[in-house]
Design goal:
The structure is a single chain. By secondary structure, the protein is mainly beta. It has no helices and 24 strands. Strands 1, 2, 5, 7, 13, 14, 15 and 17 form an 8-stranded antiparallel sheet that branches. Strands 6, 8, 9, 10, 11, 12 and 16 form a 7-stranded antiparallel sheet that branches. Strand 23 and strand 24 form a beta hairpin.
Length: 341
Amino acid sequence: MKTKLFYLTILFTGISGFAQNLFQDDFLMYTTGADLHGQGTWTHNSSLAGGLGAAIGAIPNNADVLSSAVSYPDYGASTNSVAISPDSDGVGTPFTAVTEGDVYVAFVLNLSTAQANNNSDFFRVMSGGNLNTTFRLYAINAGLSYNLAISKGANGNPLGTTALSYGYNQDHLVVIKYSQLPGANDDVVSLYVDPVYLSGVPITTSAITNTGADQSGNIDRLVFRMNWTNGMPTGKAGLVSVAKTWEELTFTLGTQQFNSAAFYVNALDAASGKITVDAQTDVPQANIRIIGMNGQVVAQKNVSLSTGTNPININALTTGVYMFEMSQASGARFVQKIMVP
């Protein structure tokens, strides 16, 4: 090795962080039919973390947010996703850096076509810069299905390719584990496709490789790298998650939820360090967190709510969009998007 959010209801989920979860996005807060670039923390600006450039070529496409559902059992579900296609925006995002140990990156993938040319990755994760690629993911046409493959570091390193192929126009859970080890070229990248999520990390990988120089130590950005033509697949992806443990990847946190209609958060005075929560029921003990669009927790405290209006003092917030989350030890959760003027 060298030198957040929860799936609660489709109305209120977005980006957040939870325990060892470093980044999650279900695309539900975004405008469909519009570029993913500029929504949330996503960008195609190559000077920003994760961005590898806008679409290029004769007939470039935008990496649009789609009103097209993806799901996987016990991992999550969303009514929105992002389009994947050749000659599209290379759209990416930063996440909380991992400087040592394991990092897990997961998303639900649904491809309609893939190309035989396998020398062009369509997804990659980087360390400390947009030109320092830690690992890459490839899709390779196999006739009526496709294989996935992974590689470490620089383009041209040997691929670890799945023995199984996967059906087109089907939702598949893709989980990539990157293990940072002490040497200069001993890091391991492992691929798991369609695991039984609740069973934890599978004993057997779908593909694995440790060939190539390590480019890690500050793993902090990911990108759907589509601003190319040869080798790029077509389809959609969603429910993107990054975590330090397998268990914290999920968007699904059980079945017990607060009744979302029973609460309303007023953030008009949040710039002065005050919010109010209108409650239609008592909540004797709960934890509240306010989370910025970059996934960082900016305020957190334990509260007791009574039926009626409850004033709460918090850290003063700057103008912008945040997620308000309230949770109990029982697993009940409530999330609302708030806007601070």
